[in-house]
Amino acid sequence: MKTINKFRLKHLFKTMLAFILVLAFNVVQGQNSDTDQKAIVWETDDSTLKWGPCPGFMPEDCRIAVLQGNPKKPNTDVFFKMQGNTTVPRHWHNSPERMVLVSGKMRVNYDGQDSEIINTGDYAYGPAERPHEATCLSDEPCILFIAFEDPIDAMPMSKTEDSKK
Hints:
Elements: H1 2-32, E1 51-53, E2 63-68, E3 76-82, E4 87-92, E5 97-103, E6 105-110, E7 116-119, E8 123-126, E9 132-136, E10 142-148, E11 155-156, H2 159-164
Antiparallel strand pairs: 1-2, 2-3, 3-10, 4-9, 4-11, 5-8, 5-10, 6-7, 6-9
Keywords: Signal
Organism: Pricia mediterranea
InterPro entries: Cupin_2 (IPR013096), RmlC-like_jellyroll (IPR014710), RmlC_Cupin_sf (IPR011051)
């Protein structure tokens, strides 16, 4: 009887050891997945960039190109392009925005703050859920690099909300 228990114990130990090794391997593989990604560089005029439309409430010629990530998941980077002398109406995002103006000159108005002028190369931060509008002040298009922490969205301000401000 003692030999059967020892055999079962050894078998159980080997099974647990195998399970732990498989689990550890999967954890290490998951941790290495970021290091397996390739570094990328995008130029704003790269012919392989896929520019898509902006949300319907924005100017028709507004475009967005996803640089990295999945817009439906956290941590996505985009180029946002609007034509010169156009305005994106008041809206808000669930995610904070970290931005660098790549080309053009832009004025941004966040509710409750003085408007700010963003020049090419300037960094800007937009808090989550803070209504704002943006105007491209230059004749050339304004291209803004935006890093979103949360999935990408843009919620237009209704006429009722606008009249309260």
